[in-house]
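Consider the record:
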Amino acid sequence: KLKTIDLNHNHIHHIGGLFQNLPDLRELFLSENNILEIPHDAFTFSSMLSVIYLEQNAIERVDPECLSTLTNLSHLHMGSNFITELPQNIFNNNNELTLLSLDKNWISELEPGTFDNVGNLKEIRLHNNRIESIKNQVFDALPSLLELHLQNNNISIIESGSFRSLQSLQHINLQGNSLAALGDVFLHQPP
């Protein structure tokens, strides 16, 4: 009953189908490899997987279905890659996700709806990307979010009310951006 696989510090390029049908797998460590993409069948039928480390690879593409069977996923670390966008419905079945690390990528835009089905998220790390603006409603479905890291992006505009629904937020980092002014971005809506 394999529960942990540690393949950090190797030269792996492709993971399609590699971790299928491992029903007892809980933790997967694949950091510091040469993985280029996360295909739709990367984790099929490994539904107990709760922690995935994919940091410091060369990931450019993430299939929208790659996480769809991971209903117990709680920690996803995908920092230091070349990811440019998040597929709209990528987190649809990841209700248990509490930590999402996408720092040090090339993400330039966050679309409303991206985080709609991960209401248990406590921390999002999006620092050191290329995000230029924060649209209203991007973070609306995250009432449990405690920490939001957006430092060192290219953010020049934060739409009014963008953080209004983050009622649990304790820490936000916006340093090192291109902000000239802030409107009512932090106003909370009455319950």
